[in-house]
Amino acid sequence: MTAPVAFTAVPDWVRALRTYEPGRPLEDVARDLGLPGIEGIAKLASNEAPLGPSPKAVAAMRAAAARMHLYPDGYAHALRARLADRLGVGPDHLLFGNGSNELIELLFHALAAPGAEVVASECAFLVYKLVAAAFQIRFIEAPMRDLTHDLEAMAAAITPDTRLVFVANPNNPTGTRVANADLDRFIEGLPEHVVVAVDEAYAELLDPEDQPDTLRHVRAGRPVVVLRTFSKTYGLAGLRLGYAIARPAGIQLLERFRQPFNVNAMAQAAAVAALEDEAFLEETRRTVREGRAWMERALHEAGFETVPSEANFLLVKTGAGRETFQALMRERIIVRPLDAYGLPDHIRVTIGRPEENRRFVEALAGLRV
Ligand SMILES: *Cc1c(COP(=O)(O)O)cnc(C)c1O
């Protein structure tokens, strides 16, 4: 027998790092419950799309499968051209990542030298804080107001050492969004030594007339990086594909830290097809918005408080969130406990297909935890 590897040289701060707790996979839960398969389990834990990916994206992946012996196009030319055209920015304004999570890390690589500070709000998307800890960067959490980013508090948290500010809009796990005019004022008032990353993971769900025009700030040359993803509304979370939109000078800095083949060829092919299937995107949007309205009403009727959401999930006050999560799991419904976000009395539930939403509400209403 070989001796166990002790990793004795690992510093204490590395040992103390927390890891991200993802939504529990279907197969895991099936095994725990002693079920033969995943059928009948509703995964409403990771804000995945209710209808899956576009059939056109699936066809594109099948067609691409026979070419997987080839390295991907490291510059993603085809996807880049189509997306740039769609967004009305130059192709040099885009950077693709293995999920937008990778882009969050690239931002730290490029901007957060030792001594730098990063600002977000409390109950913001947890990855910002975890990556800051991994980079040993001071992470300042501004207070929220009604579980919504308080942009004035965030601006007040900026110091001469601040390099990066994260605004998830709508935010995960709260689902809340800041007013467009407030965001514009915040961005326009930022000092020059700060870059703001506006994480728009749920942007495609918003009504076109509600969409914040964050790209306007990019075009105006402001230090803004917009993050988007194919994981949520496009239903391609399993492929890991996100993108950043920024001025070419900023993109080039982030490029220095990007692995040459970070975005796989299957993902590129699927995304090109998904972008073209606007009818499917619209169907997903409609399913989420109708499901969300139904679920809010049904939860309120059952006596639960929810936070007004503009994303594909709801924050539900259940009391004893982790126990509720566990009890729902026994009912074959996976949701997300939120103690890691300092919200131990809440769970987050993704809007699923209508029958999943109904099962969730009935199960929650019937729980005794
Ligand atoms: C889901 C989510 C992401 C991560 O997206 P990936 O592209 O799958 O890495 C980023 N930001 C927010 C706010 C999210 O909710």
Task: Give an overview of the whole structure.
The protein is α/β, with parallel strands linked by helices and 369 residues long. The protein contains 14 helices and 15 strands. The strands form four sheets. A seven-stranded mixed β-sheet has the order 2-10-9-8-7-3-4. A four-stranded antiparallel β-sheet has the order 11-12-15-14, covered by helices on one side. A two-stranded parallel sheet has the order 1-13. Helix 6 (126-134) links the parallel strand 3 (117-121) and strand 4. Helix 3 packs antiparallel against helix 11 (265-276), helix 5 crosses helix 6 (126-134) and helix 12 (278-301) runs parallel beside helix 14 (354-366). The mean pLDDT is 96. Residues 47, 99-101, 125, 168, 172, 199, 201, 229, 231-232, 237, 242 line the site of pyridoxal-5'-phosphate (PLP). The site of pyridoxal-5'-phosphate has 14 residues, from helix 5.
Keywords:
369 residues; alpha/beta; seven-stranded mixed β-sheet; four-stranded antiparallel β-sheet; 15 strands; 38% helix; 16% strand; binds pyridoxal-5'-phosphate
- The whole-angstrom Rg is 21 Å
The first-to-last residue Cα distance is 46 Å
Helix content: 25-40%
Largest sheet: 7 strands, mixed
SS class: alpha/beta
Compute the average pLDDT: 96
> Which ions, cofactors or small ligands are bound in this entry?
pyridoxal-5'-phosphate
| Pattern of helices and strands | HHEHHEHEHEEEHEHEHEEHHHEEHEEEH
Strand order of the largest sheet: 2-10-9-8-7-3-4
- Please give the count of helices: 14
Q: Strand percentage, roughly?
A: 15-25%
Shape: globular
Give the strand tally: 15
- Catalogue the unreliable spans: none
